[in-house]
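Archive transcription. Copying these from loose printouts into the bound notebook so they stop getting lost. Printout 1 of 2:
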Amino acid sequence: MDINKLMGMICLCVAMTLCSCSSNEKNASASVSREVYDELQKKYDMLKESVEGTLSANEEAQLELNRIMVELNTITGRTISLQKNVESGVGEDNKTTAERISESIAEIKQRLNSVAASNTNANKQTLALVENLRQTIALNEQEIDRLNTVIQDKDQQITNLDNQLSSTSAQLDQTLLEMQQNEKASWLQMGDELLSTADLLPNVKGHGNMKPIKQAKLTIIKRAKAAYQQAYSLGAAEAITKMKEADRKYNEAYNR
């Protein structure tokens, strides 16, 4: 029932009762009339307080619904912004943003349910507003759920790519290591072969027709030492001993 009509009916009842009491004053004692009057006044005051309380509750409910609408508009804006970020692949931490929006939606939903529960006799307009807000909340919840699924899928894709990249990087490192080992071995083998070739040439003084032989031997030994140096630069520690042996043989051939 409309609050103004209710107040009018209360006032009418009070007036009618007071008139009735006045017409019966001649036949009743003054104390009885006073008691009836006081009792009626008491009931009127109680009804008045109840009506004023109802008015206050309705006003507070309307204010709360207005606040909920404003906050829900903000949440909808944040949801749309998150949607753009997720679909375009930008945003610092979309997952955390989605979680915060979900928390805000849950809080709004709880407040709306509280308003609805405390205003079961609200008018149709208020009830329609509550229902519309619930539908808007449901749409936001559905969109956040969808975006969470998209975010999880993209996170899984990133994880898979990271795993593939790590695996490929490990394979590449292994391949480079094997190539390096093979290269070291090749330089060491080249140095050994060159020294062996130098050993086939005799140590001569280098006079007359022996000079080319001596020059050839010294050149081969120098190239063997250069090969050992390449192996050493690649991490072949054993190349040091081989370089010393090459120096010994070079000096031996040079000083002959």
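Printout 2 of 2:
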Amino acid sequence: MRTWSIVVGLLAGTTLSAAGQPNPFKVAKSNLKGEVNYPLSGDQTGTAKTAFDGDRQLSLSEGTVKMMGKSTKMSTWTLVTGDSMYSADLEKKEGTVMANLLPYYAKAYDQLDGAGKRRFHENIKDMGALMSRAFGMGPVNSLGEKVGDETVAGEVCENRRFASFTVCSMKKGAPLMLKSSGDLLCFRFEQTATSVSLNAPPGSAFEKPAGVKFTPLPMADADSAARGVVGYLSSQALSDSLAAARAELEQAKAEAAAQGKPTEMTAEQKEQMRQACEVLKNFDMGQVVAGAMKAMQEEIKNAAVDAVKQGATNKLKGLIKKPKIPF
């Protein structure tokens, strides 16, 4: 999952050309300081916060998500430093800590030859384009398609879209994310900054949460793991696989067009999907099971009552004998 997060981060990036950013894993020494606060909306409610101070970055999210008719409380905390990555579930009071892998990925990338580096960037770009087309967005000229500027919390930010997600980052000064939104399956996630500060947060903002036990994640050979991931992303095998997937997608769309079938959902189909999602989000399996159990109990109770009544009737018939008529 952590590796996939890094890949998604690359796909959503906006400066992945070999000339613009030769090593996408290298993070320049940052003097960024600040704090951004967001309310959560969409299918979640609550608050979120990010804080920066040099190479330290904190993310905190506390809220509830409605799924299957129930509101589930979620509270997550993450901290990235120059050498470590911490993650915690504040509800369960459990956390993990591992080495910050970006330096290892950066080192592995530097060890690629020129052809490998070019394939790396081409593969990442092709992955983004393929996913965008699969989601019905059509081809985009570059990853993170520009979709306009807006003002959030008094700051101008630039919106860029990737697949079903849109991120608005501050244009001047620090490239802080001020707004993000997206759809994942049937769930809508949104957060829009309500306050932005470019002052250094207090040191207490980066303290590990009280009562959480952090378990070290085993890392036998980070160098080998990083070389494996970067090697795959820069491989000819991945290039061939992406080309085959792109060809299959084009063939499927061509066949659908030949048969007169729409290659994208109509407005009516989207509305039907939305309604189906609403049913899914509000479907309470626990309530259904409880209702079924209650109905079953009523059936058993009624059957028992009927059995008692029938037994009493048979007994009464045995006591009241039919009189004999003498003629």
